[in-house]
Fold:
Amino acid sequence: MPSVFIKTYGCQMNVRDSEQVARDLAARGYTLAPAEAEADVILLNTCSVRDMAEQRAVDKLDQLRHLKRKNPRLVLGMMGCMAQSRGAALFDGLPDLDLVVGTQKFHEVAAYVDRLRAADPAARELIADIGAEDGSQNAIRDHVLEPGQCSAFVSIMQGCNMHCTFCIVPSTRGPERSRPIPEIVREVETLAAGGVKEVTLLGQIVNLYGRHEFEKRDGQSPFVQLLRAVAAVPGIERVRFTSPHPVGFRDDLIEAIRDVPQICESVHMPLQSGSDAILKAMHRGYTAEKYLGLVEKLRAAVPDISISTDIIVGFPGETEADFEATKALAAAVRFDQAYVFRYSPRKETPAADLPDQLSEEVKMARNQELLTLIDGPVKEKSQARVGTVVEILVEGESKTNPARFQGRTRGNHLVIVERNERWRGQLLPVRITESTGYTSYAEPAILEKDTVSAQSLLLS
Structure:
């Protein structure tokens, strides 16, 4: 049987899209290759959020050229956001590339691969498809579960209408399009029947789900209606979502996090900047004061909630005072985790043409300074969990040490435990014994006299 190797760059949505493509190819008789050198087809699912992500994909494809020379029948393809952004122009700089597929045509990849493999390698017709397609958001719905898999991503919408001035996503993913609630619930029911206990709902602006297609009911937004419906699926123990936007965070969502046991006490809420002037230039739609007020409202409703964020440093025109405002807000919030990025100009975005572009040296220095500031509270909170009993969902082998297992708390903190196959895919109470900051180490607490029930576990 032919084999395929898929390399994914970027966000969780890209991971989910790659899973769908792998499932479609499996349905046509393809197997997943363990390594690029053993594959008949190599597909790169790309990201365009930052220039570095695009360059990594280009460099990777360049590294694969030697495999094409050894095996002329090898099919090389590029999918996703970079493919959507550059289209057929990719063929000009990447002569060994056979296939370019955009973000609304993932469901066509398997058929295109078959067509390319059936053709004479010396006479292959290059294929580029970056067209828009109505209903394409409904095509990302199928899964192939691995043995013991306990968590899964569920794509609930595609696209974005926010048009932040730094962001290329509206042009690579298109406008907001949402899937119907009953269809998503059926997908989750199938996952639960396969042993999945945790689902993460995905969308570019996930909490704006359905605002154009569906109506509010009983004061609840379509997203909160969906959250509650998914949480009610038998067998689903945990529900997460990413990434929301502060402007779409309403009281009904906060109440759902507080009141629905299955919804995890963890929110990833991008800040981007703590300066009102920069937030306005970014077209974010909120102020630092409003963001901080939302954090306070969340913590008042759910005291143990974990809050992570994204922050961009070095946006055009960012002064030292603007950066200090970001530092002050980060210090006030005391995030549980933060992803800090240096601003990267993206073509055809308004920010790329703004004056006062900052040097890479300034951006790098601010990046490191902000990371150091954020790391302090993260390590303090992590150290405070040492000695406590928490519940983790055991995902499987640790990514850094396959001899041990890893799992996550409801607050999305990573915990490493000893390997025991009985625990794979299970909810397990553990006592934290050590912490390095972003990673904790624990031992099972299932036999301890002071082990608490799942209902009374610390929500850390």
User: Anything to note?
Assistant: The chain has three domains: 3-129, 136-381, 389-456.
